[in-house]
Amino acid sequence: MAKKSARKPNAAFMKPVTPDAALAAVVGAKAMPRTELTKKIWDYIKKNGLQDKKDKKQINADDKLKAIFNGKKQVSMFEMTKLVSGHVS
């Protein structure tokens, strides 16, 4: 039986991205891979109890997150990923 090769991480996810000012308020201004960026956002959400209690897929925005979420009070975790992409270069 052939050995399965280890899964290679997608190069696009590993390429460092630079957060803009709104996103830097949450994750810091240092360039980092998207995977690390997403992890830091989730750490922030969990630390501040921003995940909706009834519907875990929804994120309730505080003032810092509202700046990233285009002023929305609540977004789904899938929409969050899309909105965050608009704040990196």
Verbal overview:
With 89 residues, this protein is α+β, with helices and mostly antiparallel strands. The protein has a single domain (17-85), classed as MDM2. Helix content is 45%, strand content 11%. The chain has helices spanning 11-14, 21-27, 34-47, 63-68, 77-85, and strands at residues 16-17, 32-33, 58-60, 74-76. The strands form two sheets. Strands 1-2 form a two-stranded antiparallel ribbon. A two-stranded antiparallel sheet has the order 3-4. The longest helix has 14 residues, at 34-47. The protein is globular and about 35 Å long. It starts with 10 loop residues before the first helix and ends with a helix.
Question: What is the topology?
Answer:
Layout: H1 11-14, E1 16-17, H2 21-27, E2 32-33, H3 34-47, E3 58-60, H4 63-68, E4 74-76, H5 77-85
Give a quick rundown of the structure:
The chain is an alpha+beta fold.
Give the class-level CATH name. Mainly Alpha
Kindly identify the CATH topology: MDM2
State which percent range the strand residues make up. 5-15%
- Percent of residues in helices comes to 40-55%
Overall, the morphology is globular
Strand line-up in the sheet with most strands: 1-2
CATH architecture: Orthogonal Bundle
What is the H level of CATH, i.e. the homologous superfamily?
SWIB/MDM2 domain
Please give the count of helices: 5
Unreliable stretches (pLDDT < 50, length at least 5) are none
Tally the beta strands. 4
> How much is the radius of gyration in Å?
15 Å
Question: What number of domains?
Answer: 1
Provide the succession of SSEs. Answer: HEHEHEHEH
Please summarize the sheet with the most strands. Answer: 2 strands, antiparallel
